[in-house]
């Protein structure tokens, strides 16, 4: 009987996927297909959980097959992230003059760190407002085991100071970094690509022919990688559906309800930070409504995939094609945003957790505590992995630097995926805001493109 139910579930999933394929053949917009997939995934997963329960063998069996699409799509994205970061950074440098590069890179980093500092203060404030207290959360077996595992396996991580973690951004072996190993791998590739681009610019004075030939090679490599990106992005609606249906169907809502207050506080802080992003756009005379409409696809995918790095191709494409941001600024902001200044994972979450644990352990919270928390959070946002789980490392860095116990991070194991979805969307929004603000300040944005009505520019996907 279980086999029959599994086959029926797979047939239902196949029908939805076929429907998305029909929408593509009818040339319905990419945005509509992605949002349809998102809603279908949530509804399909909810129906499965209500019928069989989140821990049912039937759901586990069917998700094994559905995951081929979801996990396969994420792996495709991860496959092209490192090449995309490399060509995006290197070509954005070699195709810009030195003064423009310095200004854009500095502006992007400052905006990312500034918004992360705001997010950290906001997270701490919301946590204080809700009176969150870690001592009131009763740890179950899973949470306790996770906390103990963090204590046991991350001792080395805890003993590293923030300067040491920043130093690790410089790769000892660039090929190891390009394999995606380590939490700072993406930022290490950014460093090497930037170094290579700067060297190429310097070579133009002594050996212009070699520099020109290498620049053409990098631009050719960029074209090839972007074509790969286009092909992979065509699978986005199917990946979103598979990822959301699996998440919803396997979520343990009884565990989530036990930590409901923290979930509500987290989403409130994330929502307020989104509003702050829109206010920043208004300050720079950029229409926030057009931003929300045009950013819907990368934000939706970030929400469903929980991967800032995986959203990188959509982020770059949206900034260039829909917002009119120059290629150089878009590539820099999107790439740097995967590992620097993540507003959700490296800002709000550590800020909330630090206050909650400080209250639970009796640490006095005077103004100096909050100032120290905000500064440490902003600095430690360098090198946080732009994939699911990056927030845990961000929290560990901040908590250990503040002298707070890190094992309590395991208390939130049950709700981590749920909150991480919104946090990741906020991360991606932060990187796009950095690109837009920097482009606006430096005159690197085509306002006609930004203000153009949202008439489905993305049909090339």
TrEMBL record:
Q: How does it sit in the membrane?
A: Multi-pass membrane protein
Protein name per its UniProtKB record? L-cystine uptake protein TcyP
Q: Which Pfam families match?
A: SDF (PF00375)
Main localisation, per the record? membrane
Q: Which family, according to the similarity comment?
A: Belongs to the dicarboxylate/amino acid:cation symporter (DAACS) (TC 2.A.23) family.
Q: Where are the transmembrane segments?
A: 6-22, 34-52, 72-94, 106-130, 185-203, 224-244, 264-284, 369-387, 393-415
Localization annotation: Membrane
MF terms in GO = L-cystine transmembrane transporter activity; symporter activity
Q: Which GO terms describe its cellular component?
A: plasma membrane
Q: Which top-level group of life is the source organism from?
A: Bacteria
* Assigned keywords, A-Z: Amino-acid transport, Membrane, Transmembrane, Transmembrane helix, Transport
